[in-house]
Amino acid sequence: MSITLISKEGAQFLVSKPVADRIGVVRDCAYGADFWLGYAVATDDSMGITLANVTSSILSKILVWCEHYKDMEPLVDGDSNMEFPEWDMAYIGHDMNQILFVLEAADYLHIPGLLLLACKGIADVLDGRNPRGICDLLGIVMDFSHRQEVDMDKENGYWRWFLHPT
Amino acid sequence: MEQHSHMTLHAAKLQATVDAAKTLVDTLGDIPVRTIIRSRGPKSLNAVLHDVYELEDTVQRLLRKVDELRNRLFSPTARLPDEILQEIFLYCRDAIVQTRTSTPDRFNPEVLTHVCRRWRMIALDTGVLWAQSTLAATSSLQESRLNPRHMLLPVERFSYIRNGQRRLALLDRSKEVPLSLYLKFPSGSNTQPLTDELSRIVRRERQIDRLNIRASIDCDDATSASLALAQHTVRWLKITRRRKHSNPAELVRGINGSDILSKEWPRLRHLVLDGISLPRDPASPYLLLSDLRTLDLSLAGLAVDIVCLIPVLSLCNPTLERLTIRFGYASQRLVSLDYIIYPRLRRLELSGGQGNIIQLLERIRAPSLTALYIGNLLGESQRLAVINSVGSALISLLQASGCAVRLLSLTEVSGAIWRAFAGTSAAITVHSIRYGSWGTGLQADDDAIELENGLLQFPNLEELCENRQHTVQSLRNLLSCVKVRKRLHGNGVMMKPIRRLAMRAPFEETARGLKTEADIQMQLGQLVDEMVVGDLQWHRATNQWLSYQGGGDWLYKRPEDQDI
């Protein structure tokens, strides 16, 4: 049995049942298992399931992960001490933008294993960066008030030099 | 309903932005490109030019602001729900980062509170991030500055730490999450403030989940007091006891195994004892450790033999999954003892006294064992009879247990043990081998498994880790071995090719020798999937050596740093 997935741009991806089973939303749509969650139940597989929030490039990347894990269980219990296999780390890579899009899609599609892997990927990219570096990387604006900055300086005592290197 | 109105408002503002942006694009498109003014014109033109320059600067400034706002608005992190951001923070917490001091350290969660208001709020609300603390009876300026979890009484003037603000901040932020504490009692220090502090923490009904005590033997009272405070909640316990002088007899006095194991530890799952003697006749009977998964005993400098050890090993045999013992001396006394069956033991690591190891191997049965590490046998290692005893005890353990060992590490041992092992049926299940001796008195020819033929006895071998000072000749032998196995595999023989190789950094002194070694290593790198030499990893796709960051699906892993 195969299922057709349709990306945001309308591109179609034909996937086998074990691959589709990794994607919570698709599983629920295809088999109506979670009717009470309010997902539309697909009555005709040939119609395909539209994933309106996922672009083709991200969907194809996600399907690589689902294909890899079609016959085995990924890490899903959220124990941050557990080591991800090397394949996982090579898959997620270090491209922050792409990891963030994968993370968003994994959240939307209900893929807990991939969601945790993306969180780990982001944490690895943040590793060793100071706050300014994190802001630059993620396009975040440091929006502290002057008073907050003064308070934070006090509480940080003697390792301010690491947080805000000159 | 609230979410709906929020999204409607958002959509309306976005629509207004789209309209304004369209007008902006149209207006910008209508502006003609001005020519360069090279010479001074009339006064009236200069005034207009002045206005033009100012307007151009203002437009540039506004466009930069638009850029900044666009980044903020469309940054995917802004759209992430708080709970996902928390999950990311938890992975950050466990990361090991390189600091400026080049000493790896755990991630400093304070970094997350300095990014933006939202990150700060979420980080401060994530108790687990703040549950690790170091309490030291005395410490240096450097230590307090480098360790953001350090929170008690450094000797230098540190107002923030000395006044306890950091302590209060850490305890408040960690909310009700069980604490992970690292206590340091250096020799000659005043331990009272530290134990008082610990009592205060426990009185605030805070649970201590992990406790790592590093103490000098003159601080045994403080160690005992700390253990008593954490006894009912601790799940992970490490005690490292150090003597002041080189006299080994010092370690025997004071706290011993009886003081620890005759108490009840209802939640203990991980126990590491270093420098704690185990008495032959304990003052009180030992109590069962009914949930212990990991036991690690370092007995260097202590006269602990198998008779002292067996009662301890019997406390936890139904649940134990990892057992590590580093014996301090070689006992030759033979005793008659019953077998101990460890149904869940997966990893066994033994080093030190040969006599103790032989007797222990003969008395252990571990049907689930998959990783066996034997190394650094102290004693009369060159006597063939003793070597054969170690070899036969090893084989007896594996065959009588009926286990399938996938990882076999025999380092700092004579090649005769390898030879005894290689011919047996137990060799069939081995997937990873670590071999070689580093700086012991063994002869180079006799320190390890024979690379060319010996390895053919291990048909499923895929991973090879070399622990010795290799030579050009040993590398050539290794290359030949890898090639032979690959060829046999290609010809349909049931012999797996070597996929992963690890070895120490080159030690050759001459440039020519180094070049030859590098050439052979490159050839090896092309033949295997992963190759690590020292701190470098061969990257086959780009034909270059890159820094090895760890990880991978290696069966052999270096013992992890269990310190907090």
TrEMBL record, chain A:
Known pathway: Protein modification; protein ubiquitination
Domain of life: Eukaryota
Keyword annotations: Ubl conjugation pathway
Gene3D superfamilies referenced in this protein's UniProt entry, alphabetically: Potassium Channel Kv1.1, Chain A (3.30.710.10)
Residue ranges of every copy of the SKP1 component POZ domain listed in the record: 44-70
Any one Gene Ontology BP term: protein ubiquitination
SKP1 component dimerisation domain location: 112-156
Extent of the signal sequence: none
SUPFAM superfamilies linked to this entry: POZ domain (SSF54695), Skp1 dimerisation domain-like (SSF81382)
Primary role: Essential component of the SCF (SKP1-CUL1-F-box protein) E3 ubiquitin ligase complexes, which mediate the ubiquitination and subsequent proteasomal degradation of target proteins.
Subunit structure of this chain's protein: Component of the SCF (SKP1-CUL1-F-box protein) E3 ubiquitin ligase complexes.
Protein family membership: Belongs to the SKP1 family.
Annotated protein name in UniProt: E3 ubiquitin ligase complex SCF subunit
Organism per entry: Calocera viscosa (strain TUFC12733)
UniProtKB/TrEMBL annotation, chain B:
Domain F-box: 78-132
Matching InterPro entries: F-box-like_dom_sf, F-box_dom
Record's protein name: F-box domain-containing protein
Biological source species: Calocera viscosa (strain TUFC12733)
